[in-house]
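Hi everyone,

Forwarding the result from last night's run.
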Amino acid sequence: MIKKNKKFVPILVLDFGSQTTQLILRRIRDLGVYCEVTSHHNIIKKIEEFQPKGIIFSGGPSSAFDKFSPKVDSKVFKAKIPILGICYGMQMLCVQLKGKVKKTRKREFGKAHIKLLNKSPIFKGIIKLNSSTQVWMSHGDEVVKVPVGFDVIARSDNNIAAMSHKKKKIYGVQFHPEVIHTLKGKQLIRNFILDICKIKREWKINNFLKEQLNVIKNKVEKNKVICGLSGGVDSSVVAALINKAIGNQLTCIFVDHGLLRKDEEKEVLLNFKKYTDCKIIHVNARKIFLKKLQGVKDPERKRKIIGKEFIKIFEIEAKKIKNAKFLAQGTLYPDVIESKKIQGSKLKVIKSHHNVGGLPKKLNLKLLEPLRELFKDEVRTLGKELGLPNDIIMRHPFPGPGLAIRIPGEITAKKINILKKVDHIYINELKKHNLYSKIWQAFCVLLPIKSVGVMGDSRSYELTVSVRAITSKDGMTAEVFYFSEKFIQSLVGKIVGQVKGVNRVLYDITSKPPATIEWE
């Protein structure tokens, strides 16, 4: 891996507010190439600092022809660095280089087909001349005239789909190669990174591990670190990583907010005593959280309340630990992108994550987030490098607020107990039928809806549960995992038959996008 302190980042991805910017990063990492996502501001200064061999302009919600839409310093086009513009990125470089962009008569969203008109290294191994391939479009503007020196290399039924300046190695595509619905998107990014930019594949997790161990040691020195432990993949890997770096300078605080899965608190304590030698403090705060959440229905308020109480408990425990200077968290890239804007972008906040953002000054702890630039599958690989067992590494993602965001509406102790029982049946059935490892994330949602049913020849009026199972690689996009009819029928029978208070089960088949993975 290329060391950041050498001021060299092979690829810079400039963010213009796209919800899929981080997917670009992920595809590049898959190639074994390190990159960083940054704001489009001060690009020339960043080029001088990082000496990139390639630059990618992301998509975004702006219209390139608007006076106040984000632009880059025009010097970037003279820097003799290969550029790839994606969607808005293509439109922006077109406008800045004196081409023409205008509103489309009809917004183009979803799967489309493009035809290759001229051979180009960006489409090598993807599509033959005058043939077509499937791509993913999402735009309301279109390029109607390419700049001088550029060739139109591909078109869709509706507009110019790709252009290039062969001599300057500047390329633009109207579609999104980073999205899985673009069938040969990975190959297009590979062509740009490896063939056009000529970058060597040097990004490896074991190199990241070595570097982070040194970073943590140098940053922490002789001070102590507190780690928020939940038992999930992210916090488990963070704890193991920091423990390997600084040993017993780490203290893990496990806050049991009463919103964990059935018997999960016992599993967490058992696992960490077995696989680390760090100190673990168990805080039973179930009553505190339940009282604070009483009567609260809004999902954002739930997250904020849980995050606030979480910090309060850490503040209390931190005062008991002398020389504690850092709070370690399992923050990942998808958490960051969904929680706040990247500087200078118009990206909308989707939902807040309680482990993302600054801490109150009175806590007097600095954040330590060694996984902040990683995606979930990279974290799992890192966990293997650290020697953690599969039952921890391959555990399905579980949100920090726990079952609170899987109970839309008001939260009560009764609802929590019902959901724990339903979830326990669901996960056990997945493992029993060897389905658990095939699914990225599976969970149940207890809906604030009652319906009429018939149970034991009597009328029932009880709650409804929705089961969800999705496949994904990084959590940024997700597809539905379809169960067999036999499995679903058996699962529903067990849930309704064994859990008092539930008489109806739904099956959520919505992908991400348009939905998020969790309901709240």
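The first strand starts at residue 11 and ends at 15.

Cheers,
N.
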